[in-house]
Amino acid sequence: MVRDFTYSIVELERFLTEHNADDGIMHALRNIKHAIYDYQIMKFGLQPPPLQNSTVSSKSAKWVPKSHVQMFLQSILCACSPTDNSTHLEDDASTSLSVGSETQGSRNSSITSVAGKGWTIGESARNTKIDYNDEKMYQEHLKQLGRNWNLDIIALSNFKACMQNGPIVCVGRVLIDPVGERIHPDFKRSLTPLLSMIQDVYLPNPYHNALHGACVAHMTAVLTKALGLRQYLTPIEEFAYLIAALGHDAGHPGKTNAFLRSTQNPLALIYNDTSILENYHASLVCHILKSQEWFLKHLSQQDWENVRRRIIQLVLATDMMSHFTHVNNVKDRRLNGTFDYKKNAEDLWYLMVLCIKMADIGHNFLPWCDHLPWTKVLFDEFHMQGDEERLLSMPLLLFFDRSRSADIPDSQLGFFQGFTMPLMEELTLANPESEYIKRYIIVHAHNNLENWKKYSKRSLDDIAHELESSDEVAVIEDAFVD
């Protein structure tokens, strides 16, 4: 309701501007906007949202130091609109659903509840019938994690078990369990509380949420196998890589670095306006890991330092402001003939950085019926920021102005050609022996590019409606890497 009220104010300002209201009226409206914003901040600050708890949270698990949690809550007060983050999942016994008796109404309620936590972005847009209570079908989806690029991860997020435990926990266990067993026999037993803590600090943003973190981890795992990189990683390094992917947006407030700088958010002051969110995500994940005594006792001091170093390296690389620096790290060495990821650890990690970057924008390389829903929630998040920027009389960029939603297809073309393609091409050239990216991923990228050209000057809602009402069945083949 608060967001609706905010949007009404924004619409009123737009109406008055279009009808050339005099300066006195506009000045009065601006004062009202600032008063509303100040009131919302004050109200939100008095009752900061509690951290979410999933059904798999360990009550006995040691949590992040209280001072850091308080800093986390305080740091986002000026960055987030007031939302109700007080929803909790109850104990397993009270939330378990009867497979045979669940009604469509209760299922829709479950989806709404879980979507409010950022654990799903809705139901799958693929034209397939799925029984989300079918445990066998759920297990079949889990088996594809880290192996099948074309896995319908949106569908996975809607299965009952994933709704109860959350995507970071469900995906993280599948990807990390085999690695943990190579680190220590007891590693597996303590993994779930760790994953739950990372999941709990994700906020219910439309796009930068727990499902996005899980999706990026899945994609990074596929890419390392497809490019033949996994064999060069130690178990500790592979763990660092996967945990960095899972937590790369932990605590994301649904606002950009530019917004945090412009509003002088405490995080901007802490990290000196440099990769603000990425520094914060990396710090938060490392704080959570360090709070786990069971984890630290299985590592030497050198192992811990390496884990932390790789997490920082990988997460900071997801800042799009440094995009071409990382692409050129590989490109320049490849062109001068010195690039050798098989023998040079630095080159290997340059490639690992490109993998997590590609996974971070990985929905661009998914089938159109998956790419479109992710694009829609991304721009939903951008437009929510744009509404607040209007409320604060801040200048809006193209991506954040909902009144220019028909320009999104053309902006996507620019992003594809300027950012997506150079990254994809460099990963392809880095390991010419691998045909996987050419065979599966590039095909999706070019198909999506053609669709954005086709839908030029159309709103995302119109495009999505056309997809939903179409009788055409999208045949999406599996893309297993092994």
UniProtKB/TrEMBL annotation:
It holds the Pfam family PDEase_I. Keywords: Hydrolase, Metal-binding. One of its GO terms (molecular function) is 3',5'-cyclic-nucleotide phosphodiesterase activity. GO terms for biological process: signal transduction. Residues 89-111 are annotated as: Disordered. Residues 128-459 form the PDEase domain. It comes from Babesia divergens. Zn(2+) 2 binds at D249. Residues 94-111 have a biased composition (Polar residues). AMP binds at H208, N209, A210, L211, H212, D249, D360, Q412. This is 3'5'-cyclic nucleotide phosphodiesterase. The active site is at H208. InterPro entries: HD/PDEase_dom (IPR003607), PDEase (IPR023088), PDEase_catalytic_dom (IPR002073), PDEase_catalytic_dom_sf (IPR036971). Zn(2+) 1 binds at H212, H248, D249, D360.
